[in-house]
Amino acid sequence: LSENEQRTGHVVEYAPTDKIFTNPDDPRTEEYVTGKVG
Amino acid sequence: MGSGRQHFQDELRGLEVQALGGLDMVVTTLDRTLEALEHMDIELASIVVHDDDRIDGRYLEVQQGILSLLALQAPVASDLRVVAALLHVIKHVERMGDQCVNIAKMLPVVGYEPPKDEAMLEYIFRMGRLARSEVEQSKQAFLLRDVAVAEDLVRQDEEINRLNRCVFARAVEIGTDADRREWAMSMMLVARAIERIGDNAVDIGEQVAFVVTGQFREFSDASHVA
């Protein structure tokens, strides 16, 4: 939350580092860690 | 955690400054190369050749820094794109330095008082000024993350390509004198080296678009003649 209690984002995926970087469940996670978005 | 990310951002910023500083080194080297060509200054040409070690050193520094950053920090998203783009940028810096060396090494071959053709030299110096401008503009585009400035490089590069064709045409019609023809062939290689520097600058522009958009695309497709 931002200073004025507004939601500014949300967690897409939560997992051990290895999984996040090698086999994430959410395609958005993969796109993020491989530099395609964000 | 905050200080760790700040350290990473500082390192990334430092690598960008180093890599883009390499483009300043290229501009200085290109200036010296063109001055050596204008005055047939063999000594200055020799300095260009030897000073290329500095550009090669910068390439190694940035490349090592990028490898360390990738291994230790595992950057993601736009940070990863910047790191990947900087690897391209510094490779192009190294190649542009080599093109200046190619030109500088040509000067002793053509001799102190070669049979010049002023029209051909005028084309070449115009190419040189445009290439210098492209290198500076590619740096600005990267610094500002400005795709429009990056895409504008193509416009200047088309003029360099046109002038390169003029140099070729001039060489064809230069006449039958053997010394003059030999000089013209050497100048064609000089023009070719400058033209390649322009291409390298456009490639850096393409990296700017990649950093900003996440999509790589060639600004102009050399495999399809218009």
Produce a short descriptive summary.
The complex is a heterodimer of chains A (about 40) and B (about 230). By secondary structure, chain A is mostly helical.
Structure notes:
The complex is a heterodimer of chains A (about 40) and B (about 230). By secondary structure, chain A is mainly alpha-helical. Helix content of chain A is about 35%, strand content about 0%. In chain B, helix 1 packs antiparallel against helix 2 (about 40-75), helix 3 (about 75-110) runs antiparallel to helix 6 (about 180-215) and helix 4 runs antiparallel to helix 5 (about 145-170). Helix content of chain B is about 85%, strand content about 0%. Chain B has helices at about 1-40, 40-75, 75-110, 120-145, 145-170, 180-215. The relative contact order of chain B is 0.14. The longest helix of chain B is centred in the first third of the chain and has 38 residues, at about 1-40. With about 230 residues, chain B is mainly α. The interface of A and B includes residues 32, 35, 36 and 38 of A.
